[in-house]
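Whiteboard transcription, Tuesday session. T.W. wrote the structure tokens on the left side:
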């Protein structure tokens, strides 16, 4: 993901949604690490972002 303000990311909520962790990329990037349920988690993240 490319973000406007990475500080607004709730890492605990990402874990609740199924994230295995995340990697901060540069100043505005975030890679969310997922397992086999990646598509389900991606849809949940998209719903939260809307």
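and on the right, the sequence the group agreed on:
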């Amino acid at each position: 993901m490319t973000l406007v303000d990475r500080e607004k990311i709730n890492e605990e909520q990402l874990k609740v949604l199924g994230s295995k962790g995340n990697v901060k990329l540069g100043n505005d990037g975030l890679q969310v690490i997922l397992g086999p349920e990646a598509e389900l988690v991606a849809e949940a993240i998209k719903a939260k972002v809307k």
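Someone added at the bottom: The longest strand covers residues 21-25.
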